[in-house]
Specification:
Blueprint (H helix, E strand, L loop, with lengths): L1 E5 L22 H12 L2 H4 L1 E2 L7 H4 L5 H8 L6 H9 L10 H20 L3 E6 L21 H13 L4 E5 L6 H7 L5 E8 L26 E6 L6 H19 L3 E6 L18 H9 L7 E5 L5 H15 L15 H14 L16 H11 L30 E6 L11 E2 L8 H11 L6 H18 L3 E8 L2 H14 L5 E6 L14 E7 L11 E5 L7 H19 L3 E6 L7 H11 L7 E6 L6 H8 L15 H14 L21
Helix pairs in contact: 1-11, 6-7, 9-10, 9-12, 9-17, 10-11, 15-16, 17-18, 17-20, 18-19
This protein binds N-{4-[(3-aminopropyl)amino]butyl}acetamide (Q9C) and zinc ion (ZN).
C-alpha cells in the first residue's frame, strides 16, 4: 500500500492578469517549485502517480449553488474587463479564462485521491492543486479559492462510500471559513482549524473564526477554532495544540477518514502568516494524524506563498506519508503565553462536548474578550502604523537536513526457537562486542543473569542499539527473559555515550531501580496502576490509572496529555519501550503507542517484551514496520479520580516541562514574546 501523488502542469496555467497587491502572491510557481522539489529529492518517484480528472457538475453542486456554478462557467469566455468586474463581487480572489478549468481539476484531484484511498489502491496521498479551496463558499469565491476542494471531497466520501465520520484538519494559516460554513451543523464532519486572527484584525476578519464558534444544532462541538492572536508562533505552539486539543478530540471522535487542508502559509518565511514554525513540523503534524482512521489520510494543498518554505514543507509532508523516519525537533521552546491563552479558550469552549476535555480549565478571565470589545469600539479608526520590521520573506532558516532512512527497518532479538515476524530481520550480531563493554556488562549484570543465553541476548541488544545509533537499523524488538534487567542493561550502555538521552516508557506494574533516573540521561515515564506519586522526580514520572493500562480512555489521555509533550521536550536519541508482564494494555492501544513513539529519536525505538508475552510479537513488529494501527473504538470518558490526580501531577511538573502547560497561570512563566 503506497502513497498517491497527484499533480498536473495544467493547474499552473492561470495567473493574475492585472495589478493587485493582495493577489500577486498566488502564483503558478507555487505548484512547479513544490513538484520540482519532490522530483529532485526522489520522493515523487516513490509515490504512485495518480492522474487528475475534472470534477463533474453534480460533484461541484455537492457544495456550491447552481447559480454560482453557472456564473463561474461563463468566466472562460469573458474579456479582461469582464473578468476584473466579475472578480470585484468577491473578496481577495482573481479570475482568469483558464481558472474554471483548473478549479474543476483541483476539485477532481481531491476526489480522485479520495477514491484511491477509499478503494485501497493506496494507503494515503497528497494532491498538489491550484486554485486552493477552503475559503470558497456555497455562493462565492474567496481568498484565491473557487471551489471548495476538501469540502466537496468530504460530501462525496459520505455519499459514495458511506463514510460515517470525517476529520478535516486545516493547518493552513487562514481560517477555512468555507469549510466551517459547509459543515457547521453536521456532526459527521469534525472541522479543526488554527489561524492567524489577532483579535479579528487579520483577514478574513470574521467574528465566527474565534474559539467560541463551536458548531450549530446537531453539529455543536464539531467545529474547533484555535485563533492565533499573535504572529511568530513556533513549533512548540503548534505541537501543544495538537497534543492538548486536536489529538484527544480526534481519537474520541474516531474518524473513518482524515482530510487535511494542507496549507503551508503557517510555516516560517510566509508573507501572509508571519509564523515561525519550521518546515519539519509538518512531518510531525502529518505523522500524528497517520494512526487515525487506519491510516486513511488525504492531504490537499491550500496556501503557502514563500516558495522555499512551501517546497520544503511539501517534501516533509510527502516523505512522512511514505513512512520514512521523522526528523528530530530539537530546541523546542516553551509555548508562548498567547498560544496557551488560545489553547485554554478553545479547550474550555469544547469541554462540554468532549469527555477527553472535560477536565479543562475555564477560559482565562476578561483579557481576551476585553481586547475584542476594544477592537469593536475602535472599528473606524485607522490601524496603527506598525514599526518597520524585516519582512518575513527575508527570514532565514536552515534547509531541513536530508532525512535518514536506515536500510534495515526492524531487527529482532529472539530466542532461537521463536519464529521471526515477517518483514523483520532476525538480528545475529556478526561483530564481537568491545571487550571493555563486555566486561562491564558482566560486572553489572552477572548476578542477575542466570545463563549464557540471556547473556548472549544482552550483548546482541547492545550491538543492536549501536547499529541504531549509526543509522544502520531504524528500530528493533526483543523478547527477553526479564524486561527489567534488559532495560537496565540497555540504559547503562546507551546513557554512557555523551549526548545520548533515552526516553524509557514503561507500561505496567513493576519497580524501576531509582539509580537510573537521577542524571537526566534517561527520562522514565511509567504508566501503571500503582500510585508512585511519592517517588516522582523531574526524570521519573509515574502516571497512575486505577484500573490499569487496560483502561483505553485513560491510557490515551496520558499519551497525548503527558507522554507526547514530555517526549517532544526531552528530545531523546533513543526510545526504549518496556512492556511489563501482565500490563493489560490491549492490542489497539499498544499499536497506537508504538506508532506515536516513532515521533521521537528519528524512529529509533527498541521494544522489550518478556518471553511469556510472545503473543504480542507480531503486532509489535507490524507496527514498527510502519503499518498503521487499526482505529480504536470511540472512547469513553476517563475516570474522574485518575484525571484529577493527573492534573495535580501536571501542575507540579509544568515548571520543569513547559509543553505540559495547558493554562496560563501566574506561576507558569511561559516565554512572554512569541
Ligand atoms: N494580508 C489561502 O491561503 N488576502 N488563501 C489576505 C491580508 C487573502 C489566502 C490579505 C489571502 C487568501 C488559500
Ligand atoms: Zn492560507
Amino acid at each position: 500500500m503506497g502513497t498517491a501523488l497527484i499533480y498536473d502542469v495544467e493547474m499552473t496555467r492561470y495567473k493574475l492578469l492585472w495589478v493587485d497587491p493582495v493577489c500577486k502572491i498566488e502564483v503558478p510557481e507555487r505548484l512547479t517549485v513544490s513538484h520540482e522539489a519532490l522530483v529532485r529529492s526522489g520522493l515523487a518517484d516513490r509515490c504512485i502517480s495518480v492522474p487528475v480528472r475534472e470534477a463533474t457538475e453534480v460533484e461541484i453542486l455537492l457544495v456550491h449553488s447552481e447559480e454560482y456554478l453557472e456564473a463561474v462557467k461563463k468566466t472562460p469566455y469573458m474579456t479582461l474587463e469582464d473578468l476584473k468586474e466579475f472578480t470585484l463581487q468577491y473578496g481577495d480572489v482573481y479570475f482568469h479564462p483558464n481558472i474554471y478549468h483548473c478549479a474543476k481539476l483541483a476539485a477532481g484531484s481531491a476526489l480522485h485521491l479520495l477514491d484511491s484511498v477509499m478503494t485501497g489502491k493506496v494507503r494515503n496521498g497528497m494532491a498538489l492543486v491550484r486554485p486552493p479551496g477552503h475559503h470558497s463558499m456555497h455562493n462565492a469565491a474567496n481568498g484565491f479559492c473557487v471551489f471548495n476542494n476538501v469540502a466537496i471531497a468530504a460530501r462525496y466520501a459520505k455519499q459514495k462510500y458511506g463514510v460515517k465520520r470525517i476529520l478535516i484538519v486545516d493547518w493552513d494559516v487562514h481560517h477555512g471559513q468555507g469549510v466551517q460554513y459547509c459543515f457547521e451543523d453536521d456532526p459527521s464532519v469534525l472541522y479543526f482549524s488554527w489561524h492567524r486572527y489577532e483579535h479579528q484584525k487579520f483577514w478574513p476578519n470574521l467574528r465566527e473564526s474565534d474559539y467560541d464558534s463551536v458548531g450549530k444544532d446537531n453539529g455543536a462541538g464539531f467545529n474547533i477554532n484555535v485563533p492565533w492572536n499573535k504572529v511568530g508562533m513556533t513549533n512548540s505552539d503548534y505541537l501543544s495544540v495538537f497534543c492538548h486539543i486536536l489529538l484527544p478530540v480526534a481519537y474520541e471522535f474516531c474518524p473513518d477518514l482524515v482530510l487535511v487542508c494542507a496549507g503551508f502559509d503557517s510555516a516560517i518565511g510566509d508573507p501572509e502568516g508571519k509564523m515561525c514554525a519550521t518546515p519539519d513540523i509538518f512531518a510531525h503534524l502529518t505523522h500524528l494524524l497517520m494512526n487515525l482512521a487506519g491510516g486513511k489520510l488525504c492531504a490537499v494543498l491550500e496556501g503557502g506563498y514563500n516558495l522555499t518554505s512551501l517546497a520544503q514543507s511539501v517534501c516533509q509532508t510527502v516523505q512522512t506519508l511514505l513512512g520514512d523516519p521523522l526528523p528530530r525537533l530539537s530546541n523546542l521552546s516553551a509555548p508562548c503565553i498567547s498560544a496557551i491563552e488560545s489553547l485554554q479558550c478553545a479547550r474550555s469552549a469544547h469541554r462540554r462536548y468532549w469527555s477527553s476535555l472535560n477536565h479543562a480549565a475555564d477560559a482565562p478571565t476578561s483579557e481576551i474578550s476585553t481586547k475584542r470589545a476594544k477592537l469593536a469600539e475602535k472599528e473606524d479608526e485607522r490601524p496603527e502604523i506598525e514599526e518597520e520590521e524585516k519582512s518575513p520573506e527575508e527570514e532565514v532558516w536552515p534547509e531541513p537536513p536530508k532525512r535518514i532512512s536506515p536500510t534495515i527497518r526492524s531487527a529482532s532479538v529472539l530466542p532461537d526457537d521463536v519464529v521471526c515476524p515477517e518483514g523483520c530481520q532476525r538480528y545475529s550480531s556478526s561483530e564481537d562486542l568491545n571487550p571493555l563493554v563486555l566486561s562491564k556488562l558482566k560486572e553489572n549484570f552477572l548476578e542477575d543473569v542466570d545463563d549464557s543465553d540471556a547473556f548472549t541476548a544482552f550483548s546482541k541488544l547492545i550491538t543492536l542499539i549501536e547499529k541504531m545509533a549509526k543509522d544502520e537499523i531504524c528500530n528493533g524488538l526483543a523478547l527477553v527473559r526479564n524486561v527489567t534487567t534488559a532495560m537496565m542493561c540497555v540504559i547503562q550502555h546507551s546513557a554512557a555515550a555523551p549526548g545520548n538521552r533515552v526516553l524509557v516508557v514503561c507500561v505496567g506494574n513493576g519497580t524501576i531501580p531509582s539509580r537510573i533516573t537521577k542524571d537526566g540521561k534517561t527520562l522514565v515515564v511509567h504508566i501503571s496502576s500503582e500510585d508512585r506519586w511519592e517517588e516522582r522526580s523531574k526524570y521519573y514520572i509515574p502516571l497512575c490509572l486505577k484500573k490499569g493500562c487496560g483502561d483505553t480512555s485513560g491510557f490515551v489521555h496520558i499519551v497525548f496529555g503527558f507522554l507526547l509533550p514530555l517526549g517532544y521536550e526531552y528530545d531523546p536519541s533513543l526510545v526504549l519501550l518496556v512492556r511489563m508482564p501482565d500490563s493489560g494494555v490491549c492490542d489497539g492501544v499498544w499499536q497506537q503507542l508504538i506508532g506515536l513513539l516513532q515521533s521521537f529519536a528519528q524512529g529509533h525505538t527498541l521494544v522489550l517484551i518478556q518471553e511469556e508475552e510472545k503473543a504480542f510479537l507480531d503486532l509489535t513488529a507490524s507496527t514498527l514496520l510502519g503499518n498503521p494501527a487499526p482505529p480504536l473504538e470511540q472512547l469513553q470518558a476517563p475516570f474522574t479520580d485518575d484525571v484529577e490526580a493527573l492534573e495535580r501531577l501536571r501542575h507540579r511538573l509544568q515548571a520543569d516541562w513547559k509543553l505540559l502547560q495547558t493554562t496560563v497561570s501566574p506561576e507558569s512563566g511561559g516565554a512572554d514574546e512569541c
